[in-house]
Amino acid sequence: MAEKVKSILITQQDPGNEKNPYYDLSKKYKIKIDYRPFIHVEGISSIDFRQQRIDILEHAGVIFTSRNAVDHYFRIAKEMRLTIPNEMKYFCMSEAIAFYLQKYILFRKRKIFYGTGTFQSVLEFVSKHKSDKLLLPCSDLLNQSIPATLEKEGYQYSRATMFKTVCSDLSDLADVKYDMLVFFSPSDIESLFKNFPKFKQNNTRIAVFGNTTADAAKEAKLRLDITAPNPQSPSMSAAIEKYIMENK
Predict the structure, then answer these.
(1) What whole-number distance in Å separates Cα of residue 76 and Cα of residue 144?
(2) Rounded average pLDDT over 191-214
(3) Whole-angstrom distance, CA of residue 168 vs CA of residue 185
(4) In sequence order, what are the residues at sequence separation of 6 or more whose Cβ sits closer than 8 angstroms to the Cβ of residue 102?
(5) Residues 6+ apart with CB under 8 A from 67
(6) How far from each other are the two terminal CA atoms of the chain, in whole angstroms?
(7) Does residue 24 have a pLDDT over 80?
(8) What 3-state DSSP class applies to 123?
(9) Residue pair 192/38 in contact by the 8 Å Cβ criterion
(10) What confidence category does residue 1 fall into, taking pLDDT thresholds of 50, 70 and 90?
(11) Is 181 exposed, middle or buried (0-12, 13-18, 19+ CB in 10 A)?
(12) What are phi and psi of 50, to 5 degrees?
């Protein structure tokens, strides 16, 4: 049986409230849980964006898969002194992303469509405007299934890289030890070894979310103690709790 888990580092932003499953875990099992993003987003300059030779205004609609995409789309437009026409159509992957648009536009006076959180769900609306040329603002680490789907279905679109994911500086954690590290993307694993190239796992438990994160961890020769999602634990918090229960 493994040693009892007394401290966990979640490699994401602190939710900032008590309405999250990790807070419940911390309180229920008296575990110290800290948050620290291992990666962050940086915008690409308008000068670098111009090198992609994409004319934002020749597109009739925009597909937003994240709030970061919204932020950097309007940032680039502002830096390039472009006026986005009122007729622009916005296709958002979720309701939360759609409502986030209110930061930049008058919500009620625009053509806004949103799905239920999956790319396929927003495509149901995009399919009704198939003659329109669409813009896909994204990061350098865009999920490849998204452009593959658009190309397979024959949509006219431009993939516009407007921001990139980079490793955060974690030097202040050099002397801080946790019983468990929780990773959510391959970039998190990359950041770990970029910051701590001599990292040795030893008794540190490693939890990963998603197959690509698991593959990156295995490639880095890490021992996986917790993987999610799975039939017994659909969420990371549930998988962690199951592990804690089995190793009291």
Answers:
(1) 23
(2) 95
(3) 14
(4) none
(5) 96, 97, 100
(6) 9
(7) yes
(8) helix
(9) yes
(10) low
(11) buried
(12) -60, -30
The pTM assigned to this predicted structure is 0.78
Instruction: Sort strands 39-43 and 157-167 into parallel, antiparallel or unpaired.
Output: antiparallel
Residue 101 near residue 110, CB atoms below 8 Å: yes
Domains parsed from the chain with CATH numbers? 7-38+177-246 (3.40.50.10090), 42-165 (3.40.50.10090)
Q: Report, as an integer, the average pLDDT of 221-229.
A: 96
| Closest C-alpha to 178, from 57, 77, 31 | 31
202: left (phi over 0), alpha (psi -120 to 50) or beta: left
- Whether 143 shows a pLDDT value over 70: the answer reads yes
In sequence order, the 6+-apart residues with CB closer than 8 A to the CB of 37 are 11, 12, 13, 168
54-88 pLDDT tens trace: 999 999 999 999 999 999 999 999 999 999 999 99
Write the CA distances from 151 to 53, 92, 147, 154, integer angstroms. 19, 18, 6, 5
For 44, 67, 77, 133, the CA distances from 55, given in Å and listed in that order, are 16, 21, 10, 11
The token pair that represents 60 in the structure block: 């009739």
Q: Which two tokens stand for residue 98?
A: 């759609």
Structure tokens at 81: 């002194």
Residues listed for the chain: 248
